[in-house]
Design goal:
Layout: H1 7-10, E1 17-18, E2 20-25, E3 31-36, E4 39-44, E5 47-54, H2 59-66, E6 68-73, H3 79-87, H4 95-98, E7 103-105, E8 112-114, E9 119-131, E10 134-146, E11 154-158, E12 162-165
């Protein structure tokens, strides 16, 4: 049985919600990470993933400039990094200079991998569309990486940016 409620009440049932970090380089060649809650697989053949980025975020400019992004599934031990990358703007600071987060070079695209992440996906920008107050970017996965050590994935487990593993 279902009952009608306000959107604000129903949406609270979404937790746990996945967390991803997208990394793209700006015009100065600086890698800019942004924490996102909205991502999905959009194609299996070829593999494609989509992310939704708030229209006001600096990452809109960096993704459009670089025409690629690395999509990382952060590990639960990366909660502080995810909070930092999601609460600071790359317009104002170099996030990787301000927060110690291990990175490595991407193999195909001009970006970096987050080495402590559960997985990284190198994506070339295929398309974008406006979706209300966000821009949806669709990327074709051109290389995939997983961590050599077992790690739990990071999720938003409750309102107020409460982060942790889902299990």
């Amino acid at each position: 049985m279902q009952k009608q409620v306000e959107y604000e009440d129903a949406i609270k049932t979404k937790y746990p919600e996945q967390v991803v970090i997208a990394v793209s380089k700006d015009r100065n060649g600086e890698a800019n990470p942004v924490t996102l809650g909205w991502t999905m697989l959009v194609s299996g053949n070829p593999p494609m993933m989509a992310i939704a980025v708030a229209s006001r975020h600096y990452s809109i400019e960096t993704i459009r400039h670089s025409k690629c992004f690395c999509l990382a599934f952060p590990s639960s031990e990366m909660a502080d990094a995810a909070l930092f990358f999601g609460s600071k703007s790359g317009r104002d600071i170099n996030k990787f200079a301000e927060f110690d987060c291990k990175t490595g070079p991407a193999e195909i695209i001009d970006s970096v991998l987050l080495t402590d992440a559960v997985a990284n996906f190198e994506c070339t920008l295929e398309s974008e569309m406006v979706a209300g107050d966000h821009i949806i970017f669709v990327g074709k996965v051109v290389r995939s990486h997983t961590n050599t050590e077992p790690k739990k994935r990071l999720y938003t487990v409750g309102p107020g940016h409460k982060l942790g593993s889902a299990s």
